[in-house]
Amino acid sequence: MLSASLAAAICAATQMVTQAPRYSYRVLHVYAHDPAAFTQGLEYRDGFLYEGTGLEGHSTLRKVRLETGQVLRERRLAGKYFGEGITVFDGRIVQLTWTSQRGFVYDRGSFRALRGFRYPGEGWGLANDGREIYMSDGSSQIRVWDPATLRELRRIDVHDGSDAVDRLNELEWVRGEIYANVWGTDRIVRIAPADGRVLGWVDLSGLLSPAERSHADVLNGIAYDAAGGRLFVTGKLWPKLFQIELVPANADRQISKTAPSQTP
């Protein structure tokens, strides 16, 4: 549970005046999601979801069938590791851990461990654009890595006007932008990778009902189907995964009438 001071700070941060456009969402489809999955990283590749989950003793790497939420393949991390973000790159999956300063590389098809690597500080989120890997550490900076060596090349300072945007968590590359969950909030920030400018804020409050939210943790998990143009979001311990489209902040949030609302 958050301390009162931290909760107040998060509330204040979410109320700051933004200089970037604001967006809401429209739900196009709702899928089942494992309510025991403490989602830390999420990506969509070739018809399947790849998911990294956290908590010591419960951290996993998973391949998941989108349509049903069925876990098709799973690899468990050693109990001492708290799993964090993942990214799929060139037949490999890279996975972070939170405070161990240790990451792992797996074969995408078999989940066989290929190597381990180290990095300074905390590991939070990962994404890639097909050329470079982007890594968050809970601050307002995004580290850029060489995908072959997993060595840091540079850092991106994320800012909305003159205000730094910190607590950047799970990342996703979406149409030339970096999308990032802001930890402890229901918001996603859209970031220009060239200079770290905030291009927009997305308010995803209200995705879960109050009853569902009482058993869930924070919003966390963004996946993008580049071929189909589909955007998916979920959260830690959420029972659902949502396909959404972004709309102006004052638009209707109702589920689209042209798409099914739930997959059996």
Summary?
The chain has 2 helices and 22 strands. The chain has 264 residues and is mostly beta strands.
Q: Layout of SSEs?
A:
Elements lengths: L3 H11 L7 E11 L6 E7 L2 E6 L6 E6 L5 E6 L6 E7 L2 E6 L4 E6 L5 E6 L6 E4 L4 E4 L4 E5 L6 E6 L1 E2 L2 E2 L3 E7 L2 E6 L4 E5 L6 E6 L6 H4 L5 E7 L4 E6 L4 E9 L16
Parallel strand pairs: 1-19
Antiparallel strand pairs: 1-22, 2-3, 3-4, 4-5, 6-7, 7-8, 8-9, 10-11, 11-12, 12-13, 14-15, 16-17, 17-18, 18-19, 20-21, 21-22
Provide structural commentary:
- By secondary structure, this protein is mainly beta.
- The chain has one domain: Neuraminidase (6 Propeller).
- Helices cover 6% and strands 49% of the residues.
- Strands 16-17-18-19-1-22-21-20 form an 8-stranded mixed sheet, with no helix packed on it.
- It is globular.
- The model is unreliable at 11-16 and 256-264 (pLDDT under 50).
Radius of gyration: 17 Å
CATH topology: Neuraminidase
Structural class: mainly beta
Mean pLDDT: 91
Provide the spatial order of strands within the biggest beta sheet: 16-17-18-19-1-22-21-20
Strand proportion: over 45%
CATH level-four homologous superfamily name: TolB, C-terminal domain
Order of helix and strand elements from N to C terminus:
HEEEEEEEEEEEEEEEEEEEHEEE
Terminal Cα span: 33 Å
Helix fraction by DSSP (H/I, runs of at least 4): under 10%
How many H/I helical runs?
A: 2
CATH level 1 name: Mainly Beta
Overall number of strands: 22
